Amino acid sequence: MLISVIIYTHNRSDDLKDVLYSFSGQTTNDDFDYEIIIVDNNSKDKTKEMVQSYKTTFNGKLKYLFEPRQGKPYALNKAIEEAKGEIIAFTDDDCIIDKGWLLNIAKSFNGNNSGIKMVGGKCL
After folding, report:
1. Which residues pair with 91 in a beta bridge?
2. Per DSSP, what are the bridge partners of residue 8?
3. Nearest to 72, CA basis, from 26, 12, 32, 2
4. For residue 115, what are the contacts with CB-CB under 8 A and spacing of at least 6?
5. Residue 107 — very low, low, confident or very high, per pLDDT cuts 50/70/90?
6. Closest CA to 105 of 118, 123, 92, 95
7. Strand pairing of 2-9 and 33-40?
8. Is the whole model's pTM more than 0.85, yes or no?
9. How far apart are CA 92 and CA 1, in angstroms?
10. Spatial distance between the Cα atoms of 59 and 8, rounded to a whole number of angstroms
11. Cα(107)–Cα(75) distance, rounded to whole angstroms?
12. What is the pLDDT of residue 112?
């Protein structure tokens, strides 16, 4: 199973750095893999450079996309088209992800829960 995590961003490279750092400590197992897709919606800050600086941290799991058409729907649709996962997860560029976030998503779609089409979670 592959989970595609999509993060939309626009001129928030400092916040994005924090969410990427929180992903580096994810608890995973052999039941799933993941990719992180950052979709930059025409940022004028150092978003692209900041994402590039994290590429080695994620061993090929981090992908950067640029969407020049302004608007979150354009950016998200571009990322969804590029996603390779059977599961697509969304989070915002200003979130800090719990270390079990991906594991809990994977568990929700495995085994006896195969009829599940969507999950949501508590935001603190």
Report:
1. 7
2. 39, 92
3. 12
4. none
5. confident
6. 118
7. parallel
8. yes
9. 23
10. 21
11. 28
12. 64
